[in-house]
Amino acid sequence: MGEVDLNALKVQTRETWARGDYRKVSGLLMPAAEALVQALDVGPGQTVLDVAAGTGNVALAAARRGAAVTAADLTLRMLELGRARAEVEGIEVSWVEADAEDLPFADGSFDFVTSAFGVMFAPRPEAVVTEAARVLRPGGLLGMVNPTWDGYNIKMSTVRWRWSPQPPDRPDPYSWGDETTVRTRLAGPFESIECRPGAIPWVFDSPAAHRSLLETFSPSHVAAREAIGEQAAEAMFNDLEELSAEHSGPDGTVQMESTYLLVLARRG
């Protein structure tokens, strides 16, 4: 991937994730963040770097357990929203604008490096692994939560990509949810790699309610609307509403599962 293309992708990433209000979406993903922090057994006096932190699900969960937490994200809007969440709760977290592929931290700075549904969007997985390993102390733990190919997330993404395709030179973000791929990527700097499946139940009052969430708050869907125009966007959201209707029960509520792979790996 050429440098110009890489820079363009990162500009696009910043612009995309500044759309909508990701707090409304990240709330649906909070159970996975809590499961990750619990699996890592984060505690007082330990240092945590949450990479591609978004609005701070993992960062806040770790800080509630007494850890010293730094939340890093490429998009300033995400940091602003995360900082606002922390202020409401009275939780201390350091919020830093940073690229997962070029972290501005010294070698061996952290006991834990985490990412939940975040670094999967970085265009160079090998750079993500190298940087995570570099800033971890020897024996420190990497913890990740990544969506898998068999959950509802991929169904939604497949519909969106049909109308607003991914850049052809960007790796499939869902490859981070494939155990074989993850083990291959982490092998070398990491050892004792453990992978655990998980799922988050999602419930919406109706297919229309789920559609409204995506139309109004989801950064990727709001950005897609702007990119493809109103007519195509209306068709895209109609398709998404039909997809969610396939998961409707007799009472009209929508129930689906967001499946994920929880990954724990120790720095050698």
Structure in words:
This protein is α/β, with parallel strands linked by helices and 268 residues long. The chain has one domain (3-267): Rossmann fold (3-Layer(aba) Sandwich). It is built from ten helices and seven strands. It has helices at residues 3-17, 22-40, 57-64, 76-89, 125-135, 152-163, 179-186, 207-216, 219-228, 230-245; strands at residues 47-51, 68-73, 94-97, 110-116, 136-147, 190-204, 254-267. Strands 3-2-1-4-5-7-6 form a seven-stranded mixed beta sheet, with helices on both faces. α6 (152-163) packs antiparallel against α10 (230-245). The longest helix has 19 residues, at 22-40. The two termini are 29 Å apart. The model has no long low-confidence stretch (mean pLDDT 95).
Structure described in brief:
The chain is α/β, with parallel strands linked by helices.
Search tags:
Rossmann fold, 268 residues, 46% helix, 7-stranded mixed β-sheet, alpha/beta
What's the order of the H and E elements? HHEHEHEEHEHHEHHHE
Count structural domains.
Answer: 1
Shape: globular
Low-confidence stretches at least 5 residues in length (pLDDT < 50)? Answer: none
The CATH superfamily turns out to be Vaccinia Virus protein VP39
Number of helices: 10
What is the strand arrangement across the widest sheet?
A: 3-2-1-4-5-7-6
Distance between the termini: 29 Å
The total count of strands amounts to 7
CATH class: Alpha Beta
- Biggest sheet layout: 7 strands, mixed
